[in-house]
Amino acid sequence: MSDIRARVRAEVYRALEDESEIKPQVSKESELLNELIREYLRYSGYNHTISVFSAEADLPAKPADRQTIATDLDLDIDGYPPSVPLLYGLALRNVLTKPPHPNPPPKQPATQKTDILQERPPSNTAG
């Protein structure tokens, strides 16, 4: 049922778009970012969100090639699991290359699961 609702939302969005309105050209940076977001949404299982996002962002039906995106972003993906989104690689690269914080946050008990990028419990929000 939720799949049908997502498709309806995407179609309603397309129907509401003014076809005569000329859309501004999307920059290469925005195209790359949209592809990173689409890959992350697919990885996270947000398929309904993808259908609406793809319609709103006017994404092509076929996602951009992962290697092409990585090359454009100067992201070395050798040894990087193909099942993990490139967005994680970019975020981790940023985290790993910045200098350590002078006052690191206190560590959480080892029994709590933590987010891959932050020392905090994973959020329970859905997209």
**DSSP summary, beta strand count:** 0
Pattern of helices and strands: HHHHH
User: Which structural class best describes the helix and strand composition?
Assistant: mainly alpha
**Which consecutive residue ranges, at least 5 long each, have pLDDT under 50?**
117-122
Largest sheet: none
Distance between the termini: 16 Å
Helix proportion? 40-55%
- In round numbers, the mean pLDDT is 77
Determine Rg (CA atoms, Å): 18 Å
Write up this protein:
- The protein has 127 residues and is an all-alpha fold.
- The protein has a domain at 2-15 and 27-97: Mitochondrial Import Receptor Subunit Tom20, Chain A, CATH 1.20.960.
- It is built from five helices and no strands.
- Helix 1 (2-16) packs parallel to helix 3 (47-57) and helix 2 (28-44) runs antiparallel to helix 3.
- 6% of the residues are buried.
- Mean pLDDT is 77; it is low at 117-122.
Topology of helices and strands:
Layout: H1 2-16, H2 28-44, H3 47-57, H4 66-72, H5 86-97
Helix pairs in contact: 1-3, 2-3
Quick take:
By secondary structure, the chain is mainly alpha-helical. It is built from five helices and no strands. Keywords: Cell projection, Cilium biogenesis/degradation, Cytoplasm, Cytoskeleton.
Which features does this protein show?
single chain; 127 residues; mainly alpha; Mitochondrial Import Receptor Subunit Tom20, Chain A; 5 helices; 0% strand; extended; FGFR1 oncogene partner (FOP) N-terminal dimerisation domain-containing protein; LisH; FOP_dimerisation-dom_N; cytoplasm
